[in-house]
Amino acid sequence: MVLIFGGAYQGKLDYAKQTFENRDIVEDFDKWILELVKAEADVAEEVRRFIEKNRDAVVICCDISCGVVPIDPILRKWREAVGRALAAIARQSDEVIRMFCGIPTKIK
Under CATH, which architecture does the 2-106 domain have? Predict the structure, then answer.
């Protein structure tokens, strides 16, 4: 598994398509987590299942950890859930890449 994360519109998907041509790419991982939070699902369990089923995938996720903590309780829960999910995926990934201004930085 490869994890690519970074802010919105930083070139994550283009980089993934160019670098990992023959791999499945899972986009918008953060949006999937939001849907799980809204559905009051067990996010940790769903992420565990996701990892088991997608061992060879390239996972793309927006980093939503920066900035002001949201007032909305659902969005606060989402922010925490994304952080925990990214940590779980990073532990299982062979590579973790942060994209900033279109520049990939390999951190694992």
Answer: 3-Layer(aba) Sandwich (3.40)
